[in-house]
Design brief:
This protein is α/β, with parallel strands linked by helices and about 400 residues long. About 30% of the residues lie in helices and about 25% in strands.
C-alpha cells in the first residue's frame, strides 16, 4: 500500500490588517471588513478538519506587521488549539511583515505547532503512527528583509523518508511587480528533488510548476482592490506517484471590479437600476463585495451630471439600500471614463489650440505637479505612490474637464 499524506498550504493571512482607505464605509460594514482576516482563518481550520488533513503549512506573513497584536496572536492560538483537538499539526514560518525580532510580546502556542524560528533553513519530520513520513523544510525572517537566495540552502536531510516539502516565503528574482525578498529562480527549486514547494509572499495565487508542484496560494483574504476575486488555500494530497491540488476559497469579502456602459441613460434616474442590475448579476452572490466601478459613457451630457454630483447621489443611494443585506455590496470607488466621441477625436487631431493642448496631455506626467505634496512632512505619511492606472485616470478626467470648459467658453 502506498504512503499518502494530506495537508493544507496557506500563506499571507495578514491577521488584523487595518484596511486603510476604507474607513468611510458604514460602521457595520467596516466591522465585518476588519474581522474578515479572522473569518478566513476560521474557515481554514474548518477546511483542515473537514478534509482530515495530517498537517497545515503556513508560509509567512501570518500577521500584518511585526508588532503582532495580542488580539491576533490569541485568535491564532485558539485556531491552533482547535486543530490540536483533531490531531492536526501546524508548521509555520514568519515572513517580511511579521519578522521574528519585531514581535516584542510573543505568546506560546500549543505543542502541535512547529515554528521555524531562525533564518537558517532547517527541517521537522512529521510522523504518523510512529513512522517518519515527511520532512518539512523552512526558515523565518529574523529581520524585515532577506535578500539572499535561500533556495540554495534546501537539501534533503534523509533520503529514506518518503516525502520532502519546502516552505519558502520569497519571490522569483526577476519579479518586477513586488518587493523581491529571498529571491530564487524556478530552476533552483526544481533541481532539489522535493515533492512539493509551498510558497508565500505573492498575494496572487499561481502554480509555477507541476513537476514538482511549486505553488503560491495567494493570501486568504483580499485587503484592497488590487487583491480581487477569490482568496484561500490549497488542499494537497501527495502519494508516491501522484500529487493532487485543489484550491479552497476562504474569503468572507471579495474586492471586485466592474465596468458598466451607461451611454444609453438619457435621464439621471436611469443610472440606478442599470448599475444595480449589473451588480446583482455578478458572480459569487453568496459573498459580500467591495466594488470598484468604472462607468463608461459617450454621452457628453454625463459630464454635467458628474460635475453636479448626480453620479455621487446614485452611488450613495445604492450603497444605502445594500448596506444591511446579508450579502451586502458597497461601492467604494467610482471612475467615470468618457469614451471619445467622433467630435472629441476630431478635437484631438485638429490644428488648433485645443488639439495641441490635448496632444500635450498624452505625454505629460502629473508627478511634477504633485511632488510638493509627497515632500510635505505630514501629508506623505498618509499617501501612497499613485499607479500608472491611477495617473491615466486623473489625466483623462482633467482632459475632459478642459474640453468641457474650453468649449463652453468658446460658446459664450
Amino acid at each position: 500500500m502506498q504512503n499518502q499524506i494530506s495537508f493544507i498550504h496557506a500563506a499571507d493571512l495578514h491577521l488584523d490588517s487595518p484596511f486603510t482607505g476604507l474607513t468611510r464605509v458604514p460602521e457595520n460594514i467596516f466591522k465585518e471588513i476588519q474581522e474578515s482576516t479572522f473569518v478566513a482563518l476560521e474557515r481554514l481550520v474548518e477546511t483542515a478538519i473537514h478534509k482530515q488533513v495530517d498537517f497545515v503549512l503556513l508560509v509567512g506573513d501570518l500577521f500584518d506587521n511585526e508588532r503582532q497584536s495580542l488580539k491576533a496572536q490569541i485568535r491564532l492560538r485558539k485556531a491552533f488549539e482547535k486543530l490540536k483537538e483533531y490531531k492536526i499539526n501546524v508548521y509555520l514560518s514568519y515572513g517580511n511583515h511579521d519578522y521574528i525580532k519585531g514581535n516584542i510580546h510573543p505568546i506560546d502556542y500549543p505543542d502541535n505547532v512547529y515554528i521555524f524560528n531562525e533564518e537558517t533553513v532547517n527541517h521537522y519530520t512529521y510522523k504518523r503512527d510512529g513512522e517518519e513520513l515527511v520532512s518539512i523544510y523552512g526558515f523565518s525572517y529574523e529581520n524585515r528583509a532577506v535578500l539572499t537566495n535561500k533556495a540554495k540552502e534546501y537539501t534533503i536531510a534523509d533520503e529514506n523518508i518518503p516525502f520532502h516539502i519546502g516552505m519558502l516565503h520569497g519571490s522569483i528574482a526577476s519579479n518586477t511587480e513586488h518587493d523581491v525578498y529571498a529571491p530564487f529562480r524556478l530552476t533552483d527549486l526544481k533541481e532539489q528533488y522535493f515533492d512539493y514547494w509551498a510558497l508565500g509572499h505573492i498575494h496572487q495565487r499561481e502554480i509555477l510548476s507541476e513537476k514538482p508542484f511549486v505553488i503560491y496560494p495567494g493570501n486568504t483574504q483580499g485587503r484592497h482592490r488590487k487583491e480581487s476575486g477569490e482568496k484561500g488555500c490549497y488542499h494537497v494530497t501527495l502519494n508516491e506517484t501522484t500529487t493532487n491540488v485543489t484550491f479552497m476559497p476562504l474569503q468572507s469579502i471579495t474586492f471586485q471590479s466592474v465596468t458598466i456602459d451607461v451611454s444609453a441613460c438619457k435621464q439621471p434616474h436611469q443610472l440606478e437600476p442599470l448599475i444595480d442590475k449589473t451588480i446583482q448579476n455578478m458572480p459569487n452572490k453568496s459573498v459580500s463585495k467591495l466594488l470598484s466601478i468604472t462607468v463608461t459613457t459617450t454621452n457628453p451630457e454625463h459630464k454635467r451630471w458628474v460635475n453636479e454630483g448626480l453620479f455621487d447621489d446614485i452611488v450613495e443611494l445604492l450603497n444605502e439600500s445594500a448596506a444591511h443585506q446579508t450579502n451586502w455590496f458597497y461601492i467604494f470607488r467610482v471612475n467615470v471614463d468618457y469614451k471619445q466621441s467622433l467630435s472629441d477625436s476630431d478635437l484631438n487631431k485638429g490644428d488648433h489650440f485645443i488639439g495641441e493642448l490635448l496632444r500635450y496631455t498624452e505625454d505629460v506626467s502629473i508627478h511634477p505637479y504633485i511632488a510638493e505634496l509627497y515632500r510635505h512632512k505630514q501629508a506623505r505619511k498618509y499617501i501612497k505612490a499613485i499607479s500608472e492606472e491611477e495617473e491615466q485616470s486623473i489625466k483623462n478626467e482633467a482632459k475632459q474637464l478642459l474640453i468641457q470648459e474650453l468649449l463652453e467658453i468658446e460658446g459664450d
